[in-house]
Amino acid sequence: MATRLTKQTLNKNLMHNKIKKIQIISLAIFIAALLFLLLFLLINRTSKQDVPSKSAEQNGKLILGFSQIGSESAWRTRNTQSIFEAAAENDIQIIFDDAQQKQENQLKAIRSFIVYQVDVIAFVPIVEDGWDNVLTEAKEAGIPVILVDRQINADPSLYAGFLGEDGLEEGRRAARFLLNKCRNRTGKISIYEMSGTENSSVVRDRAKGFREVIATDSKFQIIHSEDGDFLRSRGKEIAENLINSSHRKDGLYFEGQKIDAVYSHNDSMTLGMLDSIENYNVYTGNTIIISVDAEQKSIDALQAGKLNCVVECNPNLGPMLMELVKQIAEGNPIPRVTYNNETMFTENDDFSTYEPRGY
After folding, report:
1. Residues with pLDDT less than 70, the chain
2. Predicted local confidence at residue 72, as pLDDT
């Protein structure tokens, strides 16, 4: 009897072990099938995204990785549109990233472009510093880099060239207009400056160029410079603070000093300032206001007598960028610096000759 029970127990254990082994094998097969399915879906999804593919390479289609800083203004939106339009016209594929005004997002984007093995990388650097490591990675991967709109502080060997505006000349043009406008005035000219994003090359250059010219006449003095971050909301806030601090309606004042001229680094901040001036019903007919960019709304304000001068910063960089991309992809060198064509609009112009800006 005991022997029979022992055999039954042994048979049960053997059966249990077989079932357990079958379960383990089944589970392993299920997991392997699941992993295979996930891998298939991932590959399929990636092939549908705007990333490099074997077919694109075989067709000779260039792939450009482009990181834009954001969409903070009509100027910036038009800048992005210009690049997409030119890429389509030149049959160049774009992998696009909106950094949303954060450098860390741009660093991630550039590294993703390197992983994708794009042909060329182009980006608008939000600030000047902090790019050496990621650009070294791009160089080691054999991917050339083009700076767009803004410049950086980095080893020049880490990037192929720069395409954008001449910020120094934009500042000089603004100052030359002011000097000419005030050529017959003998007293002190107090200037209030609204600058853009701190530590960006365009802010540095527009400030430097402006100061170079006004330094030739001691009656021009910058009494304050305020960071407006290129935002309309900040321009509005800055003007509100000036108005509320002075409690006066006969002009803009800073710490008791009447502001004779405002030099604003971009239209968004300027339009924000005009919003507050209108909301508080402040008279600025004797205040010279100079802006940079030349968006349609600022040109409208110029024609309405609310502004005196608008220095153009041309956002239509797309066609020139695509030409540089094609040159460098073919192994040809590109210029270290390429400036776009720009002009200036003033209160002395024949407004009937103006054409719509398109942004």
Report:
1. 1-59
2. 87
Q: What pTM was estimated for this model as a whole?
A: 0.81
> What SS3 class is residue 121?
strand
Whole-number Å distance between alpha carbons of 307 and 273: 11
* Sequence ranges of the chain with CATH classification 3.40.50.2300: 57-165+316-339, 167-313
Where b means 16+ CB within 10 Å and e means fewer, 203-223 reads bbbbbebbbebbeeeeebebb
**Per-residue confidence (pLDDT) for residue 46, from 0 to 100:** 34
Structure confidence at residue 185 (pLDDT): 95
Task: Report DSSP letters for 217-261, one per residue.
Answer: STTEEEEEEEE-TT-HHHHHHHHHHHHHHHT-SSS-EETTEEP-E
pLDDT tens digits for 14-36? 455 555 555 555 555 556 555 55
Q: Which amino acid is at 66?
A: F
Q: Tell me the CATH number of domain 167-313, given options 2.10.109.10, 3.30.1510.10, 1.20.140.10, 3.40.50.2300.
A: 3.40.50.2300
Class in CATH terms, 57-165+316-339? alpha beta
Burial (Cβ within 10 Å: 0-12, 13-18, ≥19) of residue 71:
middle
